[in-house]
Structure formats: C-alpha cells, structure tokens
Amino acid sequence: MSCGEPHETDCSEVLDHLYEFLDHEMPDSDCTKFETHFEECSPCLEKYGLEQAVKKLVKRCCGSDDVPVDLRAKVMGRIDLIRSGQTVPDQDVIQDVTASEA
C-alpha cells in the first residue's frame, strides 16, 4: 500500500513495523518518524487506525483468557528466532497450534 507520494519514511517500512509502533516497542525517534508519516499519508493512517481498532477489539474480547504456559513459551521462542533472522517452517507452527488445541 502506498499513496504514491514520496515520504521521508517509506510506506512499506511503516506497514512492516506497524505492530511495533502500536505496541510501543520502538525507539522514540522511530515513533516520531511514523507519526510524521501518518500526518502525510492517509492510506497508512487508515491502516494504522484499522489495526489499532482490531487490537482493541481482541483485547476486549480475549484479554482475560489464560494462555497455556507451553504455548506462550513456544510463541516467544519463535519470535526470538525470527527477530534474530532465522525462520521457522510454517508446518512446525501449524503442528504446534493443532497440538495446543487438542
């Protein structure tokens, strides 16, 4: 998605890191860049608003559900692997989700 206009921060960068922005998991300097981008780019601002609304809805509907400890550990482990540049085969993720539902 892009509005077709040039920006200091590219739309693809903003959208790739949108959840880091939503979750306040990025440095203040990056947050400022994103806020500036949202002021200039209505398609990205719209996507931000939509994702923010979904996040609030999920929190309201599922925020009190307990997550099994082993599932949380697996998810956090995969996040760490991905952040370190490694990939996890989709099949492993599907098997873990299926096993946790049983």
TrEMBL record:
<feature type="domain" description="Putative zinc-finger">
    <location>
        <begin position="11"/>
        <end position="44"/>
    </location>
</feature>
<dbReference type="InterPro" id="IPR027383">
    <property type="entry name" value="Znf_put"/>
</dbReference>
<dbReference type="InterPro" id="IPR024020">
    <property type="entry name" value="Anit_sigma_mycothiol_RsrA"/>
</dbReference>
<protein>
    <submittedName>
        <fullName>Mycothiol system anti-sigma-R factor</fullName>
    </submittedName>
</protein>
<dbReference type="Pfam" id="PF13490">
    <property type="entry name" value="zf-HC2"/>
</dbReference>
